[in-house]
């Protein structure tokens, strides 16, 4: 993953001597840095503004955050091409025409940041928000790129004369996160957690973060076309009706 190196703004309108001293320090630090990091520094030194960019990931998303104070949403451009996220735009001067700044540490003008994403994402589902001077771009991972680690949920089965009832415990899963299918007389259940993020550092953990998956072999007596499911408070309840020909029935004696 290649990210243009971020450097905090340092250009200010000092006296002529201070300007030359600052330039000398910039050049000294430029040549002191490793070769691979020089490119971002050159971009900052000669083009003016390289806003800070952070990149995160979790099981489902890549998330990019960029510090862009004082921007308008209309002046921010976001593109995704060949696995590279590019964020650019222009911050315009707030002063009136002809005003002369006595001192300024804030950059105005155009900027451009690019980052190569380490995993494949679904471009059709990318979203972005801009709030409090922070741009947040959420890039959902492609299904094939999501981790496939699952844990087996606990379950219980009861039976009456008309149906079997299967209950599966999957805390943190709602009905939107469920995938239930029947194929070749097997019932497959996948439950994906939708837990809200919690700020802070975990100091004690007993739960596991993985999603759920379990496969059940169905009795041939089950009418698979009439299976019903209900999700409530982390408990999935499946009703598996028996086919009419196997239901117990009374025989009238004439």
Radius of gyration: 29 Å
Largest sheet: 4 strands, antiparallel
What's the number of helices?
2
Shape: elongated
Low-confidence stretches: 10-19, 33-47
Q: What is the CATH class of the largest domain?
A: Mainly Beta
Gross CATH architecture of the largest domain = Sandwich
- What is the mean predicted local confidence, pLDDT? 80
Strand residue content: 35-45%
What sequence of helices (H) and strands (E) makes up the elements? HHEEEEEEEEEEEEEEE
Strand order of the largest sheet: 1-2-7-6
What helical percentage do the residues reach? 10-25%
Give the CA-CA distance, first to last residue.
83 Å
Number of domains: 2
Structural class: mainly beta
How many β strands by DSSP? 15
Find the CATH topology of the largest domain. Immunoglobulin-like
Task: Explain how this protein is built.
Mean pLDDT is 80; it is low at 10-19 and 33-47. The protein has 254 residues and is mainly beta. It has two domains: 16-144, Sandwich (Immunoglobulin-like), CATH 2.60.40.790; 150-196 and 206-246, Sandwich (Immunoglobulin-like), CATH 2.60.40.790. The chain is built from two helices and 15 strands. Strands 1-2-7-6 form a four-stranded antiparallel β-sheet, with no helix packed on it. It has a four-stranded mixed β-sheet with strand order 8-13-12-11, with no helix packed on it.
